[in-house]
Amino acid sequence: MDTNAKVTTVKQLWNERLKQSRNDIFIIDGEHKYNYTEIGRMVDDQVELLKSYGIKKRDLVALQFELDVENIVMMLACIKLGVIINPLNPHFDLDELDNLMKKFKPFAIISQKSVRGRDNISKFSKLDHYYSQNIGDLKIFVRKKRELSPFIDDYGSDAALIVLNTSGTSSMPKGVVLTNKNVLSSEYAYNETFKITSKDTVLILSGMYHAIGFHHGLISTMIAGSTIVIIKHYNIDEVSKLLKKESITFIDSLPTVMFDILYKVKDLGRLRQLICGGDRINRKLLLKAKERGIPLYNCYGLTEAVPFSYTPRDYYFKCDCMTTAVLPMSGVELRIVQKHHQIKEKDKQGLIEVAGPIVFKEYLGDPVKTKSAFDGKWLITGDVGHYNQTGLLEIDGRSSDKIIRGGENISTSTVEEKLKKCSCIKEAAVLGIPDLRLGQKIGAAVVLTDNRQEVTKNKIISELKHCNVDKKYWPEEVCIVDSLPKTTNGKIKKYILLNQLEGQK
Fold first, then answer.
1. What pLDDT score does 224 carry?
2. All structural domains of the chain with their residue ranges
3. Which residue among 82, 98, 140, 444 is the one 20 to 30 A from 404 at the CA level?
4. Binning pLDDT at 50, 70 and 90, where does residue 490 land?
5. Long-range Cβ contacts of 16-22 (<8 Å, 24+ apart)
6. Alpha carbon distance 420, 19 (integer Å)
7. How many CB atoms lie within 10 A of CB 170?
8. Cα–Cα distance between 271 and 237 in angstroms, integer?
């Protein structure tokens, strides 16, 4: 598509792509290859299905799917109808799902039966205020009484397109409202930065509920007129087979996946680059990429600003492939702030703030949190960084108390609250333990309700399972202590506990 004649909405993008790339392969899913025209017909069928349930323009529809063609088709049908999508992680636990349904009040919820048996919405026999119907492997819930849409005044490029949920690091997940302008600005810049063209084929391993999947998988592919390869369930052996079988030219994923590719896959096929987001790339991973002769570029952002920075190709090779320093994406401004003053000196750390057309519109239904993070121009990212000696930005980590496990943000306070559901636990302190593959693992120091009882990690996990706590919140290392070390004002000294947890590994 001619980037000099950029479209202003994703619906326009889809319609133009159908005209220009009718017979070109759009999606590869296992043995099936679908061209743009075939997907277009499937999308039209799903539009009619949505209409039959009274779903119309500017309604909010929650989608809970595995990563497959049915998922992409349903998302495109929503976009074509002008519906705002709220894709849900199939791994949300029941508390998170309940919070989202009550807070966002989507007009409809469409859930795909989970082949892995997780407790997703399709298993609910009923939901308050909704009626339901089963259609094949889908369960559709429709609100009994229509309420006024929060998106009624949105039009054109400024209209809401999608609501992506945050990882809920400090509280329950927030709904990040992204407009057509936000998403298209992001992916035009992304394709320009990484030179994505119609000749590329991307392998996407993140679900469409994640910015990597939706932005860098679906939207980037539609802009370029290229091809996307998808896998429903991540498996490195399957990735290895696909790299041999298909002409995959790049992969955008998390550090955990990059570790698997670089250490476990012998034949990288036609890969020309690896693009990594979600967490910092450690030095050993950069070194392994250099040894394998494949560029590993940092592409850093957050759900509210996807992505806001990248490692320039020329600088990457100038640094002998051993850097993660970044520049702002095209159209983006970055600044470092400390105590409300902008920092311009080198090697001085501060909070990173970002501005530009990629920055989100609001947190759905939460004007207070929106205002605390975004003043209308500058977004407080929660990331800490500094300028290096060459003037590029080095991202040092997060200012908040979270664990980044395999690229997924996990709130330590949330895990602590989950652990307190266990009858044997009186107090808990959760922290990230460094891990080469995952980045961090979940470690927990616990104080027992009764020191005489025998408690193991397996016993704790068994009780968490009984309480329907999702696996992503289970501790991987557990240390039982008599008491938690605290400061005079009651804050836990987690650095002391980290030494204890690492010492028993």
1. 98
2. 1-21+28-179, 402-503
3. 98
4. low
5. 17/222, 17/225, 20/225, 21/198, 21/225
6. 56
7. 17
8. 16
pTM: predicted TM-score of the whole model, two decimal places: 0.85
404 burial via Cβ count (<10 Å: 0-12, 13-18, 19+): buried
412, containing H or E segment: helix 412-419
Domains 1-21+28-179 and 402-503 share a fold: no
Q: Cα angle vertex 260, ends 33, 266, to 5°?
A: 75
pLDDT digits (tens, 9 = 90+) for 376-435: 999 999 888 899 999 999 998 766 677 888 878 788 888 988 998 899 998 899 988 888
pLDDT > 60? residue 4 = no
DSSP state of 359: B
Residue 235's CB is within 10 A of a number of other CB atoms, namely 12
Q: Is 122 helix (H, G, I), strand (E, B) or coil?
A: helix
pLDDT tens digits, 190-241: 999 999 999 999 999 999 999 999 999 999 999 999 999 999 999 999 999 9
CATH of domain 402-503: 3.30.300.30
Q: For residues 100 and 361, which has the higher predicted lDDT (pLDDT)?
A: 361
CB 85 within 8 A of CB 40: no
First CA to last CA distance, the chain: 53
**Quick one: tokens of 317?**
């090779």
CATH ID of 1-21+28-179, from 3.90.226.10, 1.10.1740.10, 3.40.50.10070, 3.40.50.12780: 3.40.50.12780
Integer Cα distance of 265 and 267 in angstroms = 6
Of the pLDDT bands very low, low, confident and very high (cuts 50, 70, 90), residue 3 is very low
In the chain, what is the greatest distance between 2 CA atoms, to the nearest angstrom?
72
Which of 376, 371, 379, 329 is closest to 354 using CA atoms? 379
Question: For 287-301, how does the pLDDT look when each residue is reduced to its tens digit (9 = 90+)?
Answer: 999 999 999 999 999
Residue 73 near residue 38, CB atoms below 8 Å: no
Query: What interhelical angle do 180-193 and 10-20 show, nearest 10?
Result: 50
SS3 per residue for 6-25? CCCCHHHHHHHHHHHCCCCE
Q: How far apart are CA 91 and CA 113, in angstroms?
A: 13
Where are the alpha helices (H) located in 233-366, listed in sequence order?
Answer: 236-245, 255-264, 283-292, 313-318
Paired residues of 333 in beta bridges: 355
